[in-house]
Structures are given as C-alpha cells and as structure tokens.
Amino acid sequence: MALTREQLAQRVAQEFHDGYYVNLGIGIPTLAANYIPHDMDVMLQSENGLLGMGPFPLDEEVDADLINAGKQTVTMASGASLFSSAESFAMIRGGHVDLTVLGAFEVDCQGNIASYMIPGKLIKGMGGAMDLVAGADNIIVTMTHASKHGDSKLLSECTLPLTGKGCIKRVLTDLALLDIEDGKFILRERAPGVSVEEIVKLTAGELVVPDDVPEMSF
Amino acid sequence: MSGFDKVVSSYEEAMEGLEDNMTVVAGGFGLCGIPENLIAEIKRKGTRGLTIASNNCGIDGVGLGILLIDKQIKKMIASYVGENALFEAQMMSGELEVELTPQGTLAEKMRAGGAGIPAFYTATGYGTPVGEGKEVREFNGCQYILEESIQGDFSIAKAWKADRYGNLMFRKTARNFNPMAVTAGKIAVVEVEEIVEVGELDPDEIHLPGIYVNRLIQGTFEKTIEQRTVRSA
Fold it and tell me: Is the ipTM of this complex over 0.90?
C-alpha cells in the first residue's frame, strides 16, 4: 500500500533529532510537525521571520501579525525569536537550518529538483523554495512516486524548469525512501506492502536496489 | 528637534512626489505587515506605470492587489503571485510584466540596495531559469550567480511603533520585508500604529534606526487575514 499523507508525515518526523532546527514546506512537510516525538525538542523555522513556530492558535489567540510561510495564523513556541526576511534567509542560505523538507513535481538522479513551475500552466512563483534547496545540506523531498497515469516522477533528468541543481540527496515518496548518490537513486526502504518490483517499474531514473530493502516501520 | 521629526500630517503628503513610471519597494509578506493605507493612497493618486518590488502582490481587492484594478502596475518583482485572479489575467495577457525572484534573493536585493552594495553572489537560482543570463562564478568549488540589488524611488513600509524621529519597532511576523524595504527607497515612507515622543523607546529595542526613514505617519489598519487557521481547545 502506498503511504497516506499522515504516514509520509510520520516517516519524515523519523528524520528529526533532538535539537534540530527544521524548515517544513507547505503541505505534507507541515504535517510532520504533528509527529515530533514528545521526548524531543525540534524548533520549526518559518521563512517569513519566525524561529520556534507553535501550533495553530485558539480562536481567541488569532493574531494577524503572526503567520507562517503559508500565510496561516500560528502561535510561537517557548523560546521563539522573530526577525526580518533578510535575517531569515541568512539562516537558510548560511546553512544554519539542520533539515529542510519540501515537496516537488520531479526529482532526478543528478539531485536536481523541479517544484515551482509547469510551463503553459499557471505560474505562481518559487517563494522561498530556491533559497531553501540552495542553502540546506540536509533536504528531504516528499512527493508521489508517479503520476495518476503511472508516469514516474523520479527521472534520469527533470523535464520541468529546475528549482535547484544537484542539491537533493534524499527523497521520500508514497512508495519508497531513496537516497541519491553518484547519479543514481538508491532504494533504502519501501512502504509496507509495496514490492521492490513495483518501485523499480515506477522509477525512470537509474535505480540501485541493495540486497536488503526493509519495509518502513511506524 | 524639528530637523529629525519625520511625521507628516496626511497620506497625501506622505506620498507626495510619487510619479508615473517610478519604482516602489514595498514591505509585507502576503497581507501581513503591508502598508495598506500607503497603497490606498497610491490608488487614489492614480499613479501609473509603476515597477513594484514586493514579495507578493496582495490578493484580489486587498493590499497591492488594488493597484491592479486600474492597471497602475507595469512590472512586478515578487517571489509568489498566487491567489490573485486579476494578477493572473494581466500577466497572461502581457499587460503586466513579472520578474519572479526567489524570496531570499529578493530580501537580500533590498538589503543590499539599502546598504550600498550593487550586487552579490548567491547559490540560489544557479542552474534554474532564475540564473539564466546571469554571471556565474565559482567559490570554494560551488557555483554562484550574480544578483543585482534593488533600489526604489520610493519605499513604502509598515511598522508597529515609532518615535517622531522615525526609529522603528516591528511586531511579530509583520516585520518580514519591511526593514529592508525601508532602507532601499530614496524616499522612505513608513506608516505605523502608534507614534510616541522621542526618548520613549528603549534604544536597545529599536529594530530600525530613523536614519533610514524620511516620512512617518500614524494610521489605522484593517489587517486582513489571508488564512485564518485555528485549533480547537
């Protein structure tokens, strides 16, 4: 079975470590905040100028001056700090954020990522995604492995305009966890009940399958 | 003390001198911390052909979005322009030129513009459409592109509190692009929720010194929330 959104978020959260500063993109990455283990301190960075993002506010706590990068109202966690966008991207570009998680349309085995633009369709903009992928050393891309029509999104070369070049080393899809090394995808884990054959069939880029590919555990 | 007193008495006076085809650098992220009354004044004046550098262009009928109604914007420099049907229509028809700029690069372009730095190298955008046509240089084995800074004829920004000298304090994530936007304009206009007397702000707690501010006005704000998201108790 392909992973649900919740399971993807849960698997992302397994990459967190105590004391990590983490930037979570919009969508599934954001959900990962719900699965931070209770015995672990993780500080969430919101690129619009908040380090130490808390949960959504109670109705009476809503503050128009306190939002996240998705423009949703949020709260601040204990120990939070506030700063400008320039300071925020200094943290990001300067490599001070320990882990960045974001979505993508396509990833290829050269570590390229395409996530912001489909030519001919509506162009909304890259927001902070280009800065995040260029600045972070430790990035996890979360995405679906293939389109609804069964077309692989893990390619030998991205077909869409790039968000970043050669910067992705780890991809979590609804079917598998893969690393990217030396121009190849390496299959590390498979979703429970998903066969290696199915993953091989839906991976267009060069894929290395080690002898042992464990199922993910939650 | 009048030489340092930045307070003006009307929005008309605040935006005096803004002319057609000028460049305006604006603060705000989404609808958070936007100089909403200064934008309204630009709409009222009917200034046209503007180039605006701002992270977003508001949404339909709110924020910078209101300047699209009478097609006052010629070119938008922004990182994200979704959630705005009129913007889409004018972009698709070619009436509105759009220069998509990565968010951190945009913030740094404003910062550099205000700090007298004409250009800087960044890894952001290398090997992507953003890097096309830009100088590439290698430092320590990594590739960087040269990005030019932004300076505006005007900057418009919103802060929380100020003293009459224009020393500014921002509030929570309404700070965002505002401090850099202020520094990047030849005439920097800032609207705030409260103006206090000189000496009332703790110098240690001023986020941006008044040296960058030319005109200051106190306003009232609607503070529209784009995505009201709450949890249940």
Answer: yes
